[in-house]
Design a protein that fits this description.
With about 70 residues, the protein is an all-beta fold. It contains no helices and eight strands.
Length: about 70
């Protein structure tokens, strides 16, 4: 089963983590919410699978392209 990196599309702060490792995820289901310029932007699962790892914590600052989680597809 392939491991899929979940990357951010914007620079911002990790506002809220919505999922936890071991959880089954459906494509486009939010894993976490980023806050950038007073907007909330979800980071969603790129495909169906199991969330195996979250690499950031709430309050962390991330830049565009940061790998924030991994899914086993």
């Amino acid at each position: 089963m392939p491991i899929v990196d979940v990357k951010t599309e914007i620079t911002g702060n990790v506002w809220k983590i919505e999922a936890e490792p071991g959880q089954s995820m459906e494509e486009d289901e939010p894993i976490m919410i980023l806050e950038s310029m007073k907007m909330e932007i979800p980071v969603a699962a790129p495909e169906d699978g199991t969330l195996i790892e979250i690499l950031v914590k709430e309050g962390d600052t991330v830049t565009e392209g940061t790998v924030v989680a991994r899914i086993e597809a």
